[in-house]
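Quick illustration, no need to memorize.
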Amino acid sequence: VVDCPDANAGLYIKSRNGTLVHANIPENAIAFQVGETAQIHTGGLLQATPHAVRGSNRGNVSRETFAVFMEPEYHSTMNLPTGRTLDDTQCIEAEQWLPSSVKTLRSRWKLGMNFGDFSNATFSAFH
């Protein structure tokens, strides 16, 4: 591991109040980025985090990451937990801080949709 020569490079997340935060992961720690599938399956108890990675502005420096995506089976239904509602899952207050290029969860996921249909709707919304 080599210290990054650019203090501005790295992972940035959007906080719940809309502030852009440079996420500094401590040495010997592991970070988990919660996505929209977990947001749906927990009925909004966990919220997906808008994020981006800023590369180094120094020459000959790269940032390497090993991403592992955990997801349900393609045809499995994405149900809400008992007692949770669509409004719990798709919080309008959290949507106000999304960048304009990010399509809201409520525009891509509907109750009863399976993971494959949700994935296709998401890919179509961004590509």
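The longest strand covers residues 10-14.
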